[in-house]
Amino acid sequence: MMWTVAAILGIGIAIAGRSSSGSSSSLAIMREVAKEIDRESWTTSRNYKLPDYHKELDTHLDAHGFTNAGKAAILANLAYESGFFWYVREQGNLDEKGDRYQRNPGLGNTEPGDGRRFIGRGFIQLTGRKNYTDAAAALSLPLVERPEVAEQKPVEVSFWYLESYKASDTKRTCFDVAQNESDVKKACAAVAGIIFAGREQVSDSLAEKGAFAKRQRYAEIIFSQLS
Questions:
Q1: What are the tens digits of pLDDT across the range 78-121?
Q2: Per residue in 144-167, is it b (16+ CB within 10 Å) or e — as a string?
Q3: pTM for the complete prediction?
Q4: Cα torsion at 58, 62, 63, 65 (round to 10°)?
Q5: Half-sphere exposure (CA, 13 Å, Cβ side) for 197?
């Protein structure tokens, strides 16, 4: 059989858009999300980090028995938390945020300066001495001594949190939601609530900041690509 260059390139492009399990890759999916929200430039910026991490991310999304709604919810929330995969460290006035985190007893910031030291990192924005300490023990990473390591392991620390942190009210983790929920809106809302509660201990802030609607929009587009 004779293969043309165009045919070979076409196969290569198709393969590049699939994850190892045969489902659409996060890289291709997020490109469609950017297109749908008229932000295609986000995926061509040098700040866009997903090209470096999409294979690892796809492996995790495929490995844990998530429903399509669950995958969409996880990916949408990671995208929102990281500024569409631009950031692996929290942005904004970090001194102000650090002061707020320092006063939050749920984050376990017991030493002076902990709030600023253990700011959000990774795609999930892992925050607080307690979360860094627990993640360090589980992942065998020096996250307490060197918090910036979380910036180098954004997928690993994110999925540790998604699997480990339990909501105080429902006792569910994000994994529990992603493995069992088939409604994408409910899945996205539940995952967002668990993530936000674990960092701020204030679930109402999602709606107040307009964050919830953006996460939901991402999730709906992602879900359409998976279905």
A1: 999 999 999 999 999 999 999 999 998 889 999 999 999 999 99
A2: beebebbeebbbbbbbbbbeebeb
A3: 0.86
A4: 150
A5: 19
